[in-house]
Design goal:
By secondary structure, the chain is of the alpha+beta class. Helices cover about 35% and strands about 15% of the residues. The protein has 5 helices and 3 strands, in the order ααββααβα.
Length: about 120
């Protein structure tokens, strides 16, 4: 089932707004201020990796902003990474980015699934 471009799993994952940890909140605030997005999801994907429970080390950011108009994918990623320099030099180990313009989001609002962790056993 897909509703407004969101699968039930994605809706569960993105419902981390109020109960989000401090790193997720910091990422959300920085991106909100810098890009004034039409749509923003900060998804903590750490639980799918070989890290302690409650970690905030692996994130997916889905951001839709007019700021990305005329920019290549790599330039969009550089823009987002540049805003999150502090987090990427510290607690954030991995960041997956989906950065689109509002027009692109309207055409295809689905978000690709993140790849499985290849970084070790969860045992």
């Amino acid at each position: 089932l897909v509703l407004n471009g969101e699968t039930p799993m994605l809706r569960r994952l993105m419902s981390t707004g109020a109960g989000a940890g401090p790193i997720a909140t910091q990422i959300r605030e920085k991106l909100q201020t810098a890009f004034l997005p039409h749509h923003l999801q900060v998804i903590n994907e750490s639980s799918g990796h070989n890290v302690p429970p409650g970690s905030e080390s692996h994130f997916k950011v889905v951001i839709v902003s007019r700021s990305f108009a005329g920019k290549s994918t790599i330039d969009r990623h550089r823009m987002v990474n540049g805003m999150l320099n502090e987090e990427l030099e510290g607690p954030v180990h991995a960041l997956s980015i989906v950065a689109r313009t509002p027009e692109q989001w309207k055409e295809r609002g689905e978000v690709p699934a993140s790849p499985q962790c290849a970084g070790g056993s969860k045992a």
